[in-house]
Amino acid sequence: MDREIESYDLTIKHIGRDGQPAPGFVTLLAGMTGLGHDKTYDLNHYQYSPTHTLPVPAGSYFLTSLMYDQSVQSPVDVVNRPYVNVDRDTTVTLDSRITKPIRITVPDPTATSIWTKGPAESYQLAHLVKGRTLPTGFEKDVTKDELATITAELGSPVAGSTGVLEATARFYNGWSTFGQTAATVALPGKTTMHVNTAGVRWHLAMQEQRPAGSGAERHVHPRPERRGVDQGQRRVDL
């Protein structure tokens, strides 16, 4: 005889900066313990309303959401609820109004808002704010003394290929960032990346895109060593 799994209604409300239902959101609910430990649920404004109720198995969940207003240059607000216990019908409100801006500057005033300077030079930064799941209100003016410069020679045996240098930051506690990428360059080519060094290791790879019809158009070339990057200059070949 099949028994019904113990489940409850979880209502998630998305609130924007103006106090109204958030027009844009991408939300992930991931089971941590209990009957829902292996369950994940994805919500977004394309498929769901800002207030949505879904039945979930009893247990504890991690909840994270990106909220925005859908304009071309909309800022993104990130709201985390690292522990949501569902042992009864539960309502959780994700409110953009509790967020605070994050401000980071690089020492080059000509770099754009996404820290690029031309097609082949970029700044890739990673900071771990201790004691927080999110760096709410974090501010940092990065100086030249805090940076190392990596110059990468990128190559390919296939004419017409392009490549992107990807850098992944790993912190002392084992946490890591998603791969951050510089601009795409024609291969063979060169790209320069400035990275911060305190408390972080950087691991490099090249994503190569070969012309259609060349076979196995997409390749990833990781650097085999797992070393940090010290302040100063470093040259690598990929």
Helix-strand string: EEEEEEEEEEEEEEEEEE
Stretches with pLDDT under 50, minimum 5 residues: 224-228
How many structural domains? Answer: 2
Secondary-structure-based class equals mainly beta
Fraction of residues in β-strands: over 45%
Biggest sheet overview: 5 strands, antiparallel
CATH fold-type name of the largest domain = Immunoglobulin-like
Architecture overview:
By secondary structure, the chain is mainly beta. It has 2 domains: 7-98, Immunoglobulin-like (Sandwich); 103-237, Immunoglobulin-like (Sandwich). Helix content is 0%, strand content 50%. It contains no helices and 18 strands. It has strands spanning 7-15, 24-34, 40-44, 51-57, 59-68, 77-86, 90-95, 103-105, 121-124, 139-141, 147-154, 162-171, 180-181, 185-186, 189-196, 200-209, 218-222, 232-237. Strands 12, 13, 14, 16 and 17 form a 5-stranded antiparallel sheet that branches. The chain has a 4-stranded antiparallel sheet with strand order 3-2-5-6, with no helix packed on it. The protein has a 4-stranded mixed sheet with strand order 9-15-11-18, with no helix packed on it. The protein is globular and about 60 Å long. It starts with 6 loop residues before the first strand and ends with a strand.
Secondary structure topology:
Elements: E1 7-15, E2 24-34, E3 40-44, E4 51-57, E5 59-68, E6 77-86, E7 90-95, E8 103-105, E9 121-124, E10 139-141, E11 147-154, E12 162-171, E13 180-181, E14 185-186, E15 189-196, E16 200-209, E17 218-222, E18 232-237
Parallel strand pairs: 1-7, 8-10, 9-15, 11-18
Antiparallel strand pairs: 1-4, 2-3, 2-5, 5-6, 11-15, 12-13, 12-14, 12-16, 16-17
